[in-house]
Write a structure and sequence with these properties.
This protein is an all-beta fold. It contains 2 helices and 65 strands. The strands form 15 sheets. Strands 18, 19, 20, 21 and 22 form a 5-stranded antiparallel beta sheet that branches. Strands 31-38-37-33-35 form a 5-stranded mixed beta sheet, with no helix packed on it. A 5-stranded mixed beta sheet has the order 40-47-46-42-44, with no helix packed on it.
Length: 760
């Protein structure tokens, strides 16, 4: 019988694991509404085969001597016709473009067809020289079909058309054929193979999409021995196994025979292969047979569970349509739920076989009516599960968002949800539509200003189910007010901003402004926060004051007052600047002061002091003329031996500002010798140069030679006060070869060198 394997969560791959783990089986069952597919004229039954995510269904309707291929869409049944010269047709698959694959004719006269936009054609690229069976077409328009050389073989040779290439399915070891029965949107196919030992096995194969691809089929081993027959019916359209392959589903069971090798009944059991590992979906309690026909991207299975009884050599089946929901990571991974209890009350329909399920949770199922096989499309009754509000508390006059979340995926065409408000101060749309394939929809609600906190209930209703939440509408709120800077010089402007606790309504939000001292600072009467904005700016104008004056700027709206404090400053010393920031001793450094506002009559006297007046002197004060803000002065310096930092400080009206200038002394700039080179035994002249005038008393530069035996210099030379250079004697001795001698001079830690070449 079926192999039993423990399959861990890791085997499913990331996509499959997340999809399965996120689902709860009990949460998936809901009420269903249904549509009967009806029948074509002269039809005796309806046999659906496949359904796409738009709810379009294809299959066939048996007639007296043949069958009619049909497509069902939006309540209407269409006869797709036949291929020329071939009686009857059967549709087997439909993709998202409503392209249909099937077979027209029978036996060696059977030919696979493609039906597109009302026209039935032979398969492209000349396929159809032998008896062929159209199996499936995925959303990438990859076609799967079987070739039957004899016209009566149960197991045929599978082939795919991928783009412009025709690719036979490579055989697995020991296989006599590779019969395709299912195709996935991941470009995998699966099917069954008759083995050379008489057994039947299942397999799947990733279709090579590039010429360099060399994928080989994988045996699933769904059957335990030669007495078991395997039927692969569908594949998932997302990766379920660790190797990236989809989940393959179907049924398997033993054939019993009459001793002549002829089967007399089939005892099926459902299987699902995760990669090559086979697991056993449970049957309904008390049942002993089951079959799986379809799987969707949420790994929900559809099929039937039933009871088989054998009396006097005859078998009897009693079937119930079942959905299997995944319950990872608990084995056996899929648990069954009968659909009948979730049908509309008093429908009187007993569903016998679930044939396909799409990604919207819609199911195709069959039942018997007056001895005739009929079919339904079942659509889950989608109802609101939750209604969330963002925010849940909002000032009146503002707009917020609400999101209605369904308990299931919206069907094709969308799910309309009615929206109501318990109070007219909150305006909501009368309804919103959750798009097909989605589970939620966000909409806006608009509030009106209120005088007190008011709770309002917003409801979402569909199919008699209600989800609701309570919104607290608060009195319109002014959050805060700010002014920058907080110290504003008299005569200058400050920048104010009002902030709201949310966004302004369509008409805007007006805030009344006021100043506590209009002789020091004034503001506009009000400021309007534009629609949709949460803040607005305004200006604070200051006037001349005799002393620093505090002022409170206030904003008010709907009884709420917010304030900001500023200080209006009398003119104060704002800047003292010396440019450049270093000069040689004896130079003058241009400087200036700047007030925060124009000086009042008779002018502003800024007191000046120097940290080293003997080196960098300044006047005792500088006057900023009436109506102006700036006045200049100079720092007078003297020649200094060392570098000295002098800080000049200015003060006015209690404010102090300072800047520093570096008074530089002279430093050694270079050492030079003339002539250079010099003949040994002759004398030359050296020169020590400073970059500025020598200090009073002179600047002593120490000297040294690296080879006194060849070239000698005095131990030092003095640059006289007020001079920038001094000469010194250079004495040499005869040499037998050219010799380089380095002369080094040092003054106040600064070294300068020159190299002299003494020639023979």
């Amino acid at each position: 019988m079926l192999h039993s394997h423990r399959v861990t969560l890791a085997r499913f791959g990331l996509v499959g694991a997340l999809a399965l783990a996120a689902m709860g089986a009990s949460a998936q069952m809901n009420r269903f509404v249904y549509q009967d597919l009806g029948v074509l004229p002269q039809g005796t039954a309806v046999v659906p085969k496949r359904m796409n995510n738009s709810g379009v269904i294809v299959g066939y309707i048996p007639r007296t001597t043949t069958s009619a291929s049909f497509l069902w869409e939006a309540g209407l049944v269409y006869d797709l016709g036949i291929l020329p010269g071939r009686p009857g047709a059967r549709s087997n698959w439909v993709n998202r473009f409503n392209t249909v694959i099937g077979t027209s004719g029978a036996g060696t006269n059977a030919r696979a067809f493609v039906w597109v936009n009302g026209t039935m054609n032979f398969l492209p690229n000349g396929v159809g020289n032998l008896g062929t069976e159209g199996v499936g077409i995925n959303d990438a328009n990859t076609i799967a079909y079987n070739v039957d050389p004899t016209g009566n073989s149960t197991y045929k040779n599978g082939t795919v058309i991928a783009g412009s290439r025709i690719l036979p399915v490579p055989p697995i070891s020991g296989a006599l054929n590779m019969n395709i029965t299912a195709i996935s949107n991941l470009n995998w196919v699966a099917g069954t193979a008759l083995m050379d030992d008489g057994s039947v096995t299942a397999w799947n194969w990733q279709i090579p999409m590039l010429p360099a691809d060399t994928f080989t089929p994988t045996e699933i081993n769904a059957a335990a021995d030669a007495s078991e027959m395997v039927s692969v019916t569908d594949m998932s359209d997302n990766a379920g196994a660790a190797d990236g392959s989809p989940i393959t589903v179907g049924m398997v069971g033993p054939f019993f025979n009459d001793g002549l090798g002829r089967p007399i009944y089939h005892y099926p059991r459902p299987f699902a292969a995760i990669g090559t590992q086979v697991v056993n979906p449970l049957l309904l309690p008390g049942d002993n047979v089951g079959e799986v026909y379809g799987i969707n991207t949420a790994f929900t299975l559809v099929g039937r569970s039933g009871q088989f009884t054998l009396q006097n050599g005859f078998g009897t089946y009693t079937w119930r349509t079942v959905l299997w929901f995944p319950i990872l990571p608990v084995e056996p991974f899929w648990v069954p739920f009968e659909i009948d209890p979730y049908m509309p009350p008093n429908s009187g329909i007993h569903l016998e076989n679930g044939l396909d399920i799409n990604d919207l949770g819609q199911v195709v199922a069959s039942y018997t009516k007056a001895g005739q096989l009929r079919a339904l499309r079942l659509s889950p009754v989608v109802t609101p599960a939750t209604l969330t509000l963002d925010p849940e508390s909002i000032p009146g006059g503002f707009t917020g968002e609400a999101t209605v979340v369904l308990d299931n995926t919206a069907p094709f065409g969308g799910a309309s949800v009615n929206i109501t408000s318990s109070n007219s101060i909150v305006a909501v749309p009368s309804s919103v539509t959750v798009p097909g394939g989605q589970t939620s929809r966000t909409f806006n609600y608009v509030t009106s200003p209120v005088g007190k906190t008011t709770p309002v209930v917003i409801r979402a209703e569909r199919a008699g189910y209600i989800a609701q939440n309570t919104l607290l509408v608060q009195p319109t709120a002014l959050d805060r007010i700010t002014v920058t800077p907080t110290l504003i010089p008299a005569g200058q402007r400050g920048n104010g901003t009002v902030f709201l606790a949310g966004r302004a309504p369509a008409s805007g939000f007006r805030v009344v402004l006021a100043s506590s001292n209009t002789s020091a600072a004034i503001v506009a009467a009000s400021v309007l926060v534009p629609a949709g904005a949460s803040q607005a700016s305004f200006l604070v104008y200051t006037l001349q004051v005799q002393a620093n004056t505090p002022v409170t700027i206030s904003g008010s709206a709907f009884g709420i007052v917010r304030t900001a404090n500023v200080m209006v400053m009398t003119p104060f010393l704002e800047i003292l600047n010396i440019t450049p920031d270093q000069v040689f001793g004896g130079q003058k450094a241009p400087s200036w002061v700047q007030l925060s506002a124009p000086a009042k009559a008779p002018g502003a006297v800024v007191t000046l002091t120097s940290s080293s007046p003997s080196i960098g002197g300044v006047p005792s004060n500088v006057t900023v003329l009436t109506g102006t803000r700036v006045s200049s002065f100079q720092v007078t310096t003297v020649v200094t031996r060392f570098n000295v930092n002098v800080t000049v400080t200015g003060s006015f009206n209690g404010q102090v500002r300072a800047d520093t200038v570096l008074i530089r002394g002279a430093s050694l700039q270079s050492i030079a010798v003339s002539p250079n080179p010099i003949v040994g035994g002759q004398n030359g002249t050296g020169t020590a140069s400073l970059d500025w005038f020598s200090f009073t008393g002179g600047s002593v530069v120490t000297l040294a030679s690296t080879l006194p035996s060849v070239l000698t210099v005095p131990g030092s030379v003095t640059v006289p006060a007020g001079q920038t250079a001094a000469n010194f004697p250079v004495t040499t001795t005869p040499v037998v070869s050219a010799t380089n001698v380095v002369i080094t001079g040092n003054y106040l830690g600064v070294n300068q060198t020159t190299t002299v070449r003494v020639d023979p």
